[in-house]
Amino acid sequence: MSDSDAVPVPAGDPPPLVPPPTFLAAAEEAGLAFEADELARLGAYLARLLDANTRFNLTRIVDPAEAWTRHVLDSLTLLPWVLQSEAERLLDVGSGGGLPGIPLAIAAPHVTVTLLEATGKKARFLEEVAVALRLDNVTVVRDRAETLAHDRDGHREAYDVVTSRAVGRLPVLLELTVPFVRRGGLVLAIKGEQAEQEIEESAGALGTLMARPVDAVRTSTGTVVVIEKTGRTPRTYPRRPGEPRRVPLP
Fold first, then answer.
1. Which of 87, 110, 181, 199 could form a disulfide with 185 if both were Cys (CB 3.0 to 4.6 A apart)?
2. Cβ-count burial 131-169 (b if 16+ within 10 Å, e if not)
3. Directed axis angle between helix 120-132 and helix 36-52, to 10°?
4. Model's pTM, two decimal places?
5. pLDDT tens digits, residue range 93-149?
């Protein structure tokens, strides 16, 4: 799209943040390219995120330049796997302030993105962002993963890709994400320096849930852990709300 297609900002909304040169250079090094309207939407989203954060907790990062790297660039490190898998449906579990789901929805408008968030204020914020930025490919669901994953008509084993960031250690995260993925689909988790250790800790959970680790790729902002669904997850998983965190799978 051309510059004239950039997202207009209604009166009263915070002005879009402009990407700093450091972000643009890092994105180029990562092989990411943007249309003008995509950068406008990403900037408008970040502005809304930081503005809403003054009223309730959405992020610890309040510096705009840092937010471009730590939020947008970090989220878009998942984009190559989303595109390579030719995903049509993506679920972002524990979306919080919309990361990584909203940046991915902006960068891959052909993908239907569902943002799953249990907290009411955060879910309402996500709905407002989707409407304001005209993200027609985004749907927000307010629910817990432990509950929604048992919806066999609409959500269980229905997604090509499930993403997550900062939801918990991998043994817990896998129980909250793998049941949503179709066989052959991917779980993409953004982790830190302990990613390899978390994969080792997850050997039992991976076998129980019918999944296997495919890769762990270091990026400029973290580590992308790639998990492939290999078979049907037993119906008993995920367990009751809160139990995966209280008693992680061995």
1. 181
2. ebbebebbbbbbebbbebbeeeeebbbbbbbbbbbebbe
3. 150
4. 0.93
5. 999 999 999 999 999 999 999 999 999 999 999 999 999 999 999 999 999 999 999
